[in-house]
Write a structure and sequence with these properties.
Helices cover 33% and strands 19% of the residues. It contains 4 helices and 5 strands.
Length: 172
């Protein structure tokens, strides 16, 4: 695929991209989890996360796109987006009629490339894929305490649909 006007190249992610995606994910998680929501603690090691990601990308159960700056090695990501097609509502199952959606699992952008349109570029590729597959809706989850993320997704046209609420209960 040709370079975009912003100077980035986007390609479909494959199993070989899993280590770089995992590395960026763990760095981003460390950066945001303590200040946003401490309940987001990885259950898997980076090695197990990479192995799981490789399998999902190879099987096609997880779709992905990677962005890199022109001239940058494929292993050096500017950012990535992962998504999956959902055929049933994840909260309500088959209780209501449900059109398939492309659920954006994760988007991370390397700090040095933020505010340069990388997430918008990745989202445009995911949207185009959804259109080609005749999927009319994209969904994602965002931590409501992460004001930066909420604002960024609203700017890209996402609107709240369902609020999942949580209450801590003392364990006995």
């Amino acid at each position: 695929m040709a370079a975009t006007p912003a100077g980035f190249v986007v390609n479909r992610a494959g199993p070989e991209d899993a280590p770089a995606i995992t590395e960026l994910w763990f760095r981003h998680l460390a950066e945001t989890s303590s200040g946003v929501d401490t309940s987001f603690t990885p259950a898997l090691t980076p090695q197990k996360t990479t192995a799981r990601l490789k399998r999902a990308l190879a099987a096609g159960t997880l779709l992905g796109w990677i962005a890199r700056a022109e001239g940058q090695s494929r292993l050096q990501l500017a950012g990535y987006l992962t998504a999956r097609v959902q055929l049933e509502d994840p909260l309500f199952g088959d209780t209501f009629e449900y059109e398939p959606v492309m659920y954006v699992v994760d988007v991370d952008v390397e700090e040095t490339f933020r505010r340069r349109g990388v997430s918008s570029l990745l989202m445009a590729h995911a949207e185009e894929h959804a259109r080609r597959q005749r999927i009319g809706t994209l969904e994602l989850a965002v931590v409501v305490r992460d004001d930066r993320a909420v604002a960024a997704w609203k700017k890209q046209g996402f609107e709240p649909r369902v609020a999942v609420m949580r209450k801590a209960v003392a364990k006995r």
